[in-house]
Specification:
By secondary structure, the protein is of the alpha/beta class. It contains eleven helices and 13 strands. The structure holds S-adenosylmethionine.
């Protein structure tokens, strides 16, 4: 597959992989399709929320429409304080609305912040037992965000995220995907919806095989395992577990990602049938390194 040479991009600005406006437009869609996320898999959400509510203070970054948040506040168990952080006010409003009538004793604190830049001053350092990002790690600058998360976590706290895997993407990508094997970046030229596209600024443009420049609105960054180890280590973490996430067929088919791909869906379906689901990401759990360990590694 001659994918690598085809990738030629221009960025309008550096840094962001997606602008908040993109998610404001997503939040405004009246009849949304869900994200291709494990939050829509009942088995995954049961075990991930069990893990999350073992803690007293927890934080979720990038809740989207609040599927995970709703399951958490319903389950509650040990959880007393739950920070929900998102850069999109529209997304946070959807979560607020979704859990408004759920009877719960969990104190929910909404914070509208971009974790690429924001130090999250509202949250005391060393106070959070669990941090989770579901289907959102691909959007952020991990070198900035993980350092903040490391500060917020209690010494025996844990960070969890399902991360798009470079190895998986490379193995299963299709020639027509705008995927760059060298960088693990997948360029999303789709945008939330025509009505909402008004005012939506592209992140940059990509040149297709015919030499046309096509705007893209999001970069989905996947990571190779060695790259992840390095990033986590630099930010004071050690990855302690890694589990492949296979999205059930119906979750993938009903997601926004499956739309408009009729020509490739037959092959994707063959893949899904072969693997028993769509190989979407790797669920990783990381713990903070002690200062001693960081020094030993230097
Ligand atoms: C693809 S959606 C996933 C939503 C949900 N967790 C799910 O799995 O369906 C990504 C979410 O992360 C948020 N997000 C992306 N980049 C962010 C950033 N830099 N800071 C804070 N939130 C961010 C978006 O606004 C959106 O709510």
């Amino acid at each position: 597959m001659e994918i690598k040479n085809m990738i030629e991009t221009e960025r309008t600005e550096t840094g962001k992989k997606v602008y908040p406006e993109y998610y404001e437009a997503v939040a405004a869609i009246a009849q949304p399709r869900h994200f291709p996320s494990p939050v829509n898999d009942p088995e995954w959400i049961k075990s991930a929320t069990d893990w999350f509510v073992e803690s007293r203070t927890a934080m979720e970054v990038g809740p989207g429409r609040g599927e995970f948040a709703e399951a958490v506040v319903r389950k509650r168990r040990e959880l007393k304080k739950y920070y929900i952080v998102d850069m999109s006010g529209g997304m946070l409003n959807l979560v607020r609305e979704r859990i408004r009538d759920v009877e719960t004793e969990v104190e929910v604190i909404f914070i509208c912040a971009d974790v690429d830049y924001d130090p999250l001053f509202e949250i005391p350092d060393g106070s959070v037992d669990r941090i989770i990002m579901v289907n959102a790690f691909q959007d952020i600058n991990p070198l900035a965000a993980l350092r903040v998360f490391r500060r917020k976590l209690a010494p025996n706290g844990l960070f969890r995220a399902n991360v798009l895997s470079g190895e998986i993407r490379e193995k299963y990508c299709f020639a027509e995907d705008f995927f760059d094997r060298d960088t693990g970046c997948f360029y999303l030229t789709r945008h939330p919806s025509i009505e909402n596209k008004k005012g939506l600024k592209p992140i940059g443009s990509i040149t297709n095989k015919e030499g046309e420049k096509i705007p893209f609105y999001r970069i989905l960054k996947s990571y190779y395992r060695s790259e992840l180890d390095e990033i986590f280590y630099d930010c004071g973490f050690e990855i302690i577990s890694e589990t492949p996430v296979i999205l059930p067929k119906n979750v993938w088919m009903n997601s926004v990602a499956a739309q408009g791909k009729e020509h490739t869906n037959i092959r994707r379906l063959e893949l899904i049938d072969k693997l028993g689901g769509y190989p979407s990401s790797v669920d990783i759990i990381a713990k903070p390194l002690t200062n001693l360990k960081i020094k030993e590694g230097q």
